[in-house]
């Protein structure tokens, strides 16, 4: 005999929309408290939820919320993420400027991006809405959606902040990293340039996801010259400004810094999220992998900024990251050492993708 909850789960497929709505609304808490009830009959309830994302907006909202919760389970995550037809519907709805549940869809996509198989999205295409002004490549659409969502001009019901987490997880894969540093034909822009401006955004989610994306892409050492070139990506100001506070430097130190770092306002604040500060410092360390990167950071006085960050941020992870970077910057280049060991020699010093 099925339990009352199992019977309730069955009602999400009822032909009467009022019954579907009532069942879905009442089941939302159980998608976190008792997810096992959705795993019966070879995940049939999950299959019904995937279908319901195209239902009336209120029913769809509950269905998407449950899928967000349920994809914390690895078996459900892989079942949902591997469904190409469902992914196509999700992506099509996500870019619809009138989609009322766009932010929930972005959250669900952020979960699905934790499945390694989603890296195939690098070649996926779909027709973009005219309002998006993008091309047919889904990755470009996600980036353009992320940019336009920042000020709420694309979809009045969405800010698309959670796409930052989508980009961060996808950027763990080499083929996605390559996309981020390759100029796109349709707008002649290097994709990572679209997101670097959000390292000081008001949204914690945006800042954290963008910081992680930049760091992951920085594992692509051949792209470092472009990262550091003022006419290509010019990433240093976007890494250094978030970790800089209102400290006072002596004139000699100040003059040598990048122009963006000079004469900052007295109310300038360092990013309050210590994990973001640590990520930016680790990205700087990755960019010291080459001799050119190390020389550039020395020439623009990165050390004083790291010194003050180490002194003022009360966080062990930040301090350890600062110490690793300082060791590299203060190292005598005449000392023996292998090129490309900016992460340190031991496992404890290794910088990992986020």
Walk me through the structure.
This protein has 354 residues and is mainly alpha-helical. It has 3 domains: 1-81, Leucine-rich Repeat Variant; 87-197, no CATH class; 218-354, no CATH class. 53% of the residues lie in helices and 0% in strands. It has 20 helices and no strands. Helix 4 (40-52) packs across helix 5 (57-70), helix 10 runs parallel beside helix 13 and helix 17 runs parallel beside helix 20. Residues 337-348 have low confidence and may be disordered. It comes from Parathielavia appendiculata. Residues 332-341 have a biased composition (Basic and acidic residues). Residues 94-277 form the Protein HGH1 N-terminal domain. Belongs to the HGH1 family.
Shape: elongated
H and E order: HHHHHHHHHHHHHHHHHHHH
Number of structurally distinct domains: 3
Percent helix: 40-55%
Q: Which ranges are low-confidence, i.e. pLDDT below 50, for 5 or more consecutive residues?
A: 337-348
Strand percentage lies at under 5%
Query: Between the first and last Cα atoms, what is the distance in angstroms?
Result: 46 Å
Q: What is the helix tally? A: 20
Kindly provide the radius of gyration, computed on alpha-carbon positions and rounded to a whole number of angstroms. Answer: 23 Å
What's the β-strand tally? 0
Mean pLDDT: 92
How many strands, what sense, and barrel or not for the largest sheet? none
Structural class: mainly alpha
Domain Protein HGH1 C-terminal: 283-336
InterPro entries: ARM-like, ARM-type_fold, Hgh1, Protein_HGH1_C, Protein_HGH1_N
Protein name: Protein HGH1 homolog
Biased composition (Basic and acidic residues): 332-341
């Amino acid at each position: 005999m099925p339990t009352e909850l199992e019977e309730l789960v069955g009602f999400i497929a009822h032909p009467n929309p009022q019954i579907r709505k009532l069942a879905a609304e009442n089941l939302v808490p159980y998608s976190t408290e008792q997810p096992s009830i959705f795993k019966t009959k070879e995940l049939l309830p999950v299959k019904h939820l995937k279908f319901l994302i195209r239902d009336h907006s209120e029913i769809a909202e509950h269905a998407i919320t449950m899928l967000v919760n349920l994809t914390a389970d690895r078996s459900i995550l892989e079942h949902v993420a591997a469904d190409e037809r469902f992914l196509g519907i999700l992506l099509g709805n996500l870019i619809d400027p009138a989609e009322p549940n766009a932010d929930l869809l972005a959250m669900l996509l952020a979960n699905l991006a934790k499945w390694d198989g989603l890296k195939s999205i690098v070649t996926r295409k779909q027709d973009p809405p005219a309002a998006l002004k993008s091309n047919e490549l889904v990755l470009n659409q996600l980036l353009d959606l992320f940019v336009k969502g920042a000020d709420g001009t694309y979809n009045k019901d969405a800010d698309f902040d959670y796409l930052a987490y989508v980009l961060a997880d996808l950027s763990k894969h080499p083929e996605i990293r390559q996309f981020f540093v390759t100029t796109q034909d349709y707008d002649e822009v290097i994709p990572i340039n679209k997101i670097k401006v959000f390292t000081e955004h008001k949204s914690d989610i945006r800042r954290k996801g963008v910081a992680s994306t930049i760091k992951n892409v920085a594992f692509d050492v051949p792209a470092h010259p472009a990262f550091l070139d003022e006419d290509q990506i010019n990433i240093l100001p976007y890494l250094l400004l978030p970790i800089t506070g209102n400290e006072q430097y002596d004139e000699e130190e100040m003059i040598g810094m990048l122009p963006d770092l000079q004469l900052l306002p007295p109310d300038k604040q360092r990013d309050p999220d210590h994990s973001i500060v640590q990520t930016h410092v680790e990205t700087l360390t990755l960019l010291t992998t080459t001799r050119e990167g190390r020389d550039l950071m020395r020439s623009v006085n990165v050390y004083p900024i790291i010194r003050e960050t180490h002194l003022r941020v009360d966080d062990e992870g930040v301090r350890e990251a600062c110490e690793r970077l300082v060791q590299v910057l203060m190292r005598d280049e005449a000392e023996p050492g292998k090129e490309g060991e900016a992460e340190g020699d031991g496992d404890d010093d290794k910088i990992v993708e986020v």
